[in-house]
């Protein structure tokens, strides 16, 4: 039993408490802004046309980072090719077809677990299945497939949430007008849920683009002074390149490190920004 | 026409169902391949060697205890950072902040979740660890403590978003009831809203801890990677090496099929089982309370 406080005390308690919580929230958020601004300021001097479009030379201590930029773009596209259709289809299944059976619950638990598996364990799995067992070698294909499975739970859960938020009446009306189940899903439900699905897809791919551990043994190349020719080539990638030049290469010019960090950050933040804009515009437009 | 439409519909429905089941298939596949490559460990090295305190693969010492304690100490440190700050931020966003502030803070926290861990590790090497070395007067700034601070930051967005969802889900009538009885907003938060959201907040904490255990790049870059058994609190301020960092650092250099290779897969198996346990525990908390809520409503 707590001591009953006088009214004046509890208002003081509230003021002190609110201040403390507010400070905590700002202590959490301000470093994020500081990190972004700091990398922006430190990295901008490194950015030049040569840095963005040139190949690294002198043991990566000079030149550009084009192969890493292109590699990350390839990996992101590769991840999207596998994870987007599969993820959206799985979300459609969970939202439109599945009833609450033990099997459905097992699927949900599986998705939760996929989301929680450490990224480096995905790397081991990709090495075991794609690189060695299926013999894809250390390649863009193997890395993309590994990243896809890691991205899947993000896409499934956001897409399902978005599909479920479409009012049931929309479906009922469509079916009653003679549309089949799939026609209703494709022309009505998917169309209405599209902005939400897109947001989830971009946030999932953003995560994939910034990941290092899953591609360490499945597709990332330490140094490759040319662009990959086929999906069976290994590739440089921005996050792995940043790891390499900040830990593995002695006497690495600090400017190039910050420049690489900046390019990676801009890549990821742009995706984040697009997702945020799509979501807030869809929210503002929504009439149901 | 009619016929082809049905056929089309049939195929699409089947494809969608198969995609739905794929999540189960992937979890099973991941487990299968970890076991397939990890289980030979027991044939090639003894259990007593695995449970020893020496990790020195070149001389066939595969004691995973230092790695376990390394992961444990970094994760505990991260939780000490992420839990108070994560819950504090969630309470602020959901209960205290004005609407416009909420619209700014939520995307920012989400942004933190999207920052590549390698960028945080990079800043950890360049800024945080020199600062910690000087500030705490340590021989090196690459310590478990440095890793804990950064890892806390990585776990915060998970804690915030799940805890905030839980607080948001508390019916408004609960708060209005408390206010009507004369409670201040502050009293309402801690004696009504927060207890009502307790299980969701617990889930948030568990998922945040799960995120911290599994993080790889940041800890590999800033914890110094010394496989030393962490036995006391002071170990927080010395270099350690986690399970995830060990896999990431060594897998690239081992011969496929060697004992070392199998032991690394075995560590992956242990990590998989830990995350399985944490996530099943976290989701069962959610399911249980949902059922209770359903009982109350019916």
Structure, described:
The complex is a heterodimer of chains A (288) and B (298). Chain A is 74% helix and 1% strand. With 288 residues, chain A is mainly alpha-helical. In chain A, a hairpin with a 4-residue loop joins strand 1 and strand 2 (62-63). Chain A starts with 6 loop residues before the first helix and ends with a helix. The mean pLDDT of chain A is 89. Chain B folds into two domains: 2-38; 42-297, MetI-like fold, CATH 1.10.3720.10. Helix content of chain B is 77%, strand content 1%. Chain B has 13 helices and two strands; from the N terminus they run H-H-H-E-E-H-H-H-H-H-H-H-H-H-H. Chain B has helices at residues 2-38, 41-44, 47-50, 65-96, 99-114, 117-135, 144-168, 172-180, 185-196, 198-214, 217-222, 243-250, 259-297, and strands at 55-56, 61-62. Chain B has a two-stranded antiparallel sheet with strand order 1-2. At the A-B interface, helix 1, helix 3, helix 4, helix 5 and helix 6 of A face helix 1, helix 4, helix 5, helix 6 and helix 7 of B.
């Amino acid at each position: 039993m707590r001591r009953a406080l006088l009214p004046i005390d509890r208002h003081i308690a509230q003021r002190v408490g609110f201040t403390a919580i507010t400070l905590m929230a700002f202590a959490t958020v301000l470093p994020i802004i500081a990190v972004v601004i700091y990398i922006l300021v430190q990295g901008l001097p490194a950015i030049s046309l040569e840095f963005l479009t040139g190949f690294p030379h002198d043991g990566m201590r000079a030149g550009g980072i084009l192969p890493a930029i292109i590699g990350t773009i390839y990996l992101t596209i590769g991840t999207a090719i596998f994870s987007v259709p599969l993820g959206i289809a799985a979300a459609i299944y969970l939202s439109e077809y599945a009833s609450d059976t033990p099997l459905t619950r097992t699927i949900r638990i599986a998705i939760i677990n996929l989301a929680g598996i450490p990224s480096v364990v995905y790397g081991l799995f990709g090495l075991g299945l794609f690189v060695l067992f299926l013999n894809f070698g250390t390649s863009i294909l193997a890395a993309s497939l590994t990243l896809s499975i890691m991205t899947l739970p993000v896409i499934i859960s956001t897409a399902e949430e978005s599909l479920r938020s479409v009012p049931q009446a929309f479906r009922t009306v469509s079916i009653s007008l003679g549309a089949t189940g799939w026609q209703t899903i494709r022309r009505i439900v998917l169309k209405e849920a599209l902005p939400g699905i897109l947001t989830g897809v971009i946030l999932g791919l953003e995560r994939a683009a910034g990941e290092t551990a899953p591609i360490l043994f499945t597709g990332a190349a330490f140094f490759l002074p040319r662009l990959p020719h086929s999906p069976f080539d290994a590739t440089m990638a921005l996050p792995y390149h940043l790891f390499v030049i900040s830990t593995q290469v002695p006497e690495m010019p600090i400017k190039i490190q910050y420049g690489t960090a900046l390019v990676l950050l801009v890549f990821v933040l742009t995706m984040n920004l697009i997702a945020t804009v799509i979501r807030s515009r869809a929210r503002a437009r929504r009439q149901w | 026409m009619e016929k082809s439409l049905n056929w089309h519909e049939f195929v699409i429905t089947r494809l969608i169902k198969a995609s739905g089941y794929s999540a189960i298939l992937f979890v099973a596949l991941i487990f299968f391949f970890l076991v397939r490559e990890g289980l030979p460990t027991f044939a090639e090295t003894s259990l007593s060697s695995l449970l020893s305190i020496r990790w020195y693969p070149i001389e066939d010492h595969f004691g995973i205890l230092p790695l376990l304690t390394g992961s444990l100490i970094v994760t505990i440190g991260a939780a000490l950072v992420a839990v108070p700050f994560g819950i504090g931020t969630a309470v602020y966003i959901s209960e205290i902040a004005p609407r416009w502030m909420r619209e700014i803070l939520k995307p920012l926290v989400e942004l933190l979740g999207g920052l590549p861990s390698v960028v945080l590790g990079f800043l950890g090497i360049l800024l945080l660890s020199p600062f910690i070395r000087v500030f705490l007067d340590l021989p090196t700034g690459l310590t478990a403590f440095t890793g804990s601070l950064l890892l806390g930051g990585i776990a915060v967005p998970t804690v915030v978003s799940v805890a905030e969802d839980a607080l948001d889900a508390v019916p408004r009538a609960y708060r209005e009831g408390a206010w009507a009885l004369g409670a201040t907003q502050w009293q309402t938060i801690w004696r009504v809203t927060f207890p009502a959201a307790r299980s969701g907040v617990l889930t948030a904490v568990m998922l945040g801890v799960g995120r911290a255990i599994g993080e790889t790049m940041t800890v590999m870059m800033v914890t110094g990677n010394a496989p030393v058994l962490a036995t006391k609190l002071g170990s927080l301020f010395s270099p350690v090496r986690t399970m995830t960092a060990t896999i990431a650092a060594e897998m690239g250099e081992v011969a496929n099929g060697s004992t070392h290779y199998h032991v690394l897969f075995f560590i992956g198996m242990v990590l998989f089982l830990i995350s399985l346990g944490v996530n099943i525990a976290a989701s069962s908390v959610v399911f249980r309370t949902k059922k209770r809520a359903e009982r109350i409503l019916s």
